[in-house]
Amino acid sequence: MSHDATAETKATYDRIAPIYDLMEAVVERFAFRHWRKALWSLVDGERVLEVGIGTGKNVPYHPAGVQVTGVDISDRMLKRAVERTQGLEAGPDLALMDAERLGFPDAAFDTAVATFVFCSVPDPVQGLQELDRVVKPGGRVILLEHVRVSVSVVGKMMDLLDPLVQRLVGPHINRRTEENVRKAGLAVEQVQELAVDGLVKRIVACSN
To answer: What's phi and psi for 124, nearest 5 deg?
Structure first.
């Protein structure tokens, strides 16, 4: 993926960082927070990578006694995460980093987690391959993602609206993330549909 696409993604999330939590406040309260909590209950190991930590919405669900490293492409989103984690005895380590070019050695983590991230990564397969690289063989990659729905007419409408939505607020609304996980070479262990017509999925995969 081009440098321009990555720069555009960063610029979009820098722009919306001050209002990002407000934009998602309703769905966060009634759905997302419950799904986040359930997802983090699946995390194993002592070293965990959270890609796209954003404003730090997952921090309350980070397991005790686990070393979490959180990365994000937007420094303004990370600034919000820093504010959210101030005062914690053992908050995550935070770093500015592109999901497509992770600055970690191979097999550095036991588990990788991402929530509503691979809708925005310009080259999602490349980003998922990076997760496969930095997670130990046999370790888990756990994702919570909104995806293109299975209903044909709705899926086609999402395809039509996708360029506008992506330009305004960042994410693609028609990503086929389960397929991208398989294309990246990860072994899919479990897929759970959490919203109507598979709009939101929890995907658990195994690193090779």
So the answer is: -65, -35
